[in-house]
Specification:
Shape: globular
Oligomer: single chain
CATH class of the largest domain: Alpha Beta
Number of domains: 2
Bound molecules: 6-O-phosphono-beta-D-glucopyranose
CATH architecture of the largest domain: 2-Layer Sandwich
Largest sheet: 9 strands, mixed
CATH topology of the largest domain: Dihydrodipicolinate Reductase, domain 2
Number of strands: 17
């Protein structure tokens, strides 16, 4: 049975959100329809949205408020968590849905937006509270931010901006973007989103580490042999070839989501749960990650690109045959990295990161591999070494935590076998976890930036990626791997050189 501790609940309880208008730039895009509106609907369904709540879609195409509402209704009917849709909940949300036609280059359209927001303040009591959501292609972020500044829509703490990824494509471009945004908004008004931080299992990393006494003492170079962070996808580029071919796996997944996983699994205990305290610790950890020099990429990285193959019995095309991908593309769809963290806790412990598209299985996990016990008693037989302890945090899809340990097989002879102790979210907590965007939008409405990326954090992560990207420019092309396999054979050789092996989750 679950126990609730009212004192702890009180400590982490937050105020509920004040009335607010969320303005979505890129209102007719994929993200709005598939993620943002369904997440807002789910929050409404759970009664978590404030009474005075409004959504304004800002887009180029001409359409009426009602046409916009009808479009979004179709999206919610398809993608919401609570289906079939509850018409009463939808009607409540739809009453506060507005559409503003506009062009990002036209200052007059932002003046018109300001007028609509003032009208919404009067009609719905939103009182100047605004959340501007950049759901457009990244090239348009700077222009929109500038226009918001010029229209006087960025000048109070109640006006905040959510910036989607990708946050730059290198250290220089990330710095430039930070300069542009913080030239208009104060850093405290900026929420850089990384949807991995909205995942329940990712938030649980800090709880696992710091709400339990038994793990943290072992969480260091004395006991940990190495750590593997894997994010494997079966998907290919799914019609996003234009974007992906310019980005690649390292920029798309490693710089942001996987570096966040690394920071949370390896950082020092923060002294409080305040946003700045936690983010300071993450930055401190990222600063300790040893950058990979451009002339050492062959030693610390492997990149691959999927060729045609088959997944779940179906043939799939190779990356270079995907729409909007150059036929001679050198873009990485698979990447393996070895990183070291130069601090006292992790000195000499390798962190292996692996991500790829078109791998055999969708799985994201962090595996902390412990060292072998002393080679006496049960570990003394060198011909039959014991399997070592592994703690696995399964981020998705089968959310949970498991520990591998050795046990005696019942019987008259001594036979030792590894067994698994397993915690499953579904089994212990039942209900399906909220979508990451629900949590992040709710936090943004509450003004809580803990689960958002600070400007210096984004830049620090780019420092680590920049050397790799530079080195790859002159390195041989990515190794091909057949779709439906665990990446190029070179990735296996890469970790085996260190005397370790990839897990097969
Ligand atoms: C996005 C990437 O940030 O994350 C996609 O751009 C990737 O390429 C996606 O597929 C993975 O997210 P999730 O939540 O499905 O693991």
């Amino acid at each position: 049975m679950l126990e609730t501790n009212p004192l702890r609940a009180g400590i982490v309880a937050r105020s509920s959100p004040d009335p607010c208008a969320v303005v979505i730039f890129g209102a007719t895009g994929d993200l709005t329809g598939r993620k943002l509106l369904p997440a807002l609907y789910n929050l409404a369904h759970e009664g978590q949205l404030p009474g005075g709540f409004a959504i304004v879609g800002f887009g180029r195409r001409a359409k009426s408020h009602d046409e916009f509402r009808a479009e979004l209704r179709r999206d919610v009917e398809q993608h919401a968590r609570f289906l079939p849709m509850n018409p009463a909940v939808w009607d409540g949300l739809a009453q506060g849905l507005y559409y503003q036609q506009g062009d990002y280059t036209n200052a007059a359209d932002f003046t018109a937006l300001g007028k609509l927001l003032a009208q919404i303040d009067r009609e719905r009591g939103t009182d100047g509270n605004r959340l501007f959501y950049m759901a457009t292609p990244p090239g348009q972020f700077p222009q929109i931010v500038q226009q918001l500044g010029t229209a006087g829509l960025a000048n109070s703490a109640a006006q905040r901006v959510i910036v989607e990824k990708p946050f730059g494509r290198s250290l220089d471009t990330a710095r430039e973007l930070n300069r542009t945004i913080t030239g208009v908004f104060d850093e405290r008004q900026v929420l850089r989103i990384d949807h991995y931080l909205g995942k329940e299992t990712v938030q649980n990393i800090l709880v696992l580490r710091f709400a339990n006494e038994i793990f943290e003492h072992l969480w260091n170079e004395k006991y940990v042999d190495h750590v593997q962070i894997t994010v494997a996808e079966t998907l290919g580029v799914e019609g996003r070839g234009g974007y992906y071919d310019q980005a690649g796996a390292l920029r798309d997944m490693v710089q942001n989501h996987m570096m966040q996983l690394l920071a949370l699994i390896a950082m020092e205990p923060p002294t409080s749960l305040e946003a700045e305290v936690i983010r300071d610790e993450k930055v401190k950890l990222l600063r300790a990650v040893r950058p990979i020099p451009a002339d050492h990429v062959a030693q610390y990285t492997v990149r691959g690109q999927y060729a045609a193959g088959s997944l779940a019995g179906k043939s799939v095309a190779g990356y270079r045959q995907e729409k909007d991908v150059a036929p001679d593309s050198r873009t990485d769809t698979f990447v393996a990295l070895k990183l070291y963290i130069d601090n006292w806790r992790w000195s000499g412990v390798p962190f292996f990161l692996r991500h790829g598209k078109r791998l055999p299985k969708r799985v994201a996990e962090i595996a902390v591999q412990f060292k072998a016990p002393p080679a006496v008693l049960f570990g003394a037989d060198l011909a039959a070494p014991l399997q070592t302890n592994v703690l696995v945090i399964r981020i998705q899809p089968d959310e949970g935590i498991s520990i591998r340990m050795n046990a005696k097989v019942p019987g008259t002879i001594l036979n030792i076998q590894p067994v698994k102790m397993d915690f499953r979210y579904g089994g212990s907590f039942g209900a399906r976890s909220p979508d990451a965007y629900e949590r992040l939008l709710y936090d943004a409405l509450c003004g809580d930036s803990t689960l958002f990326i600070r400007g210096d954090e984004a830049e620090r992560s780019w420092v680590i990626m920049d050397g790799v990207l530079q080195g790859w420019q002159t390195a041989p092309a990515p190794f091909p791997y057949e779709a439906g396999t665990w990446g190029p054979a070179e990735a296996d050789a890469f970790i085996e050189r260190d005397g370790r092996q990839w897990r097969r989750p």
